[in-house]
Amino acid sequence: MNNLKDIINANMQRIKNDLKEIPNLKNIDFIDIFPTSEEHKYNLDKEIKNISKLLKETERGNIYLLNEPITTEYGLLDMVKIRFFDETRLKWEAAADFEVDDRDVLMKRVGKDDRYSYIKRDEWDAIEFKTDNTLIYFLKPLASEVYNRKV
Q1: Domain made up of 4-146: CATH architecture
Q2: What is the pTM of this model?
Q3: 78 pLDDT above the threshold of 80
């Protein structure tokens, strides 16, 4: 499965059960795609360049704004990062960022539930939710806010 939309849709199906325990889930905000090889990354880059514009080059991959948002069960998705190939990320095909009404509810789970962790960076912070099937982030500020994008 190499097609960008197929990867996104498969990831949405895979994380569906885990998302049921997230209170006040609003919508998807952003998604990172983890290529499974250098060739896979090349193919994803080739595909996304035809359906988007480059927003930013980062040390971990390029962020794109889709010309037409992808409809998901969790709202419209218009921002995608194609990560550089990284063997440590082969367990997951993608990591979605979601918006919630109250991040404090999730923050209370950090330290009490091993699936939740807190990540602090200079420009943002995140609550990470990780299971065998799921890698999800709840960022502050949202990627869409950082890049002035709201679908």
Answers
A1: Roll (3.10)
A2: 0.90
A3: yes
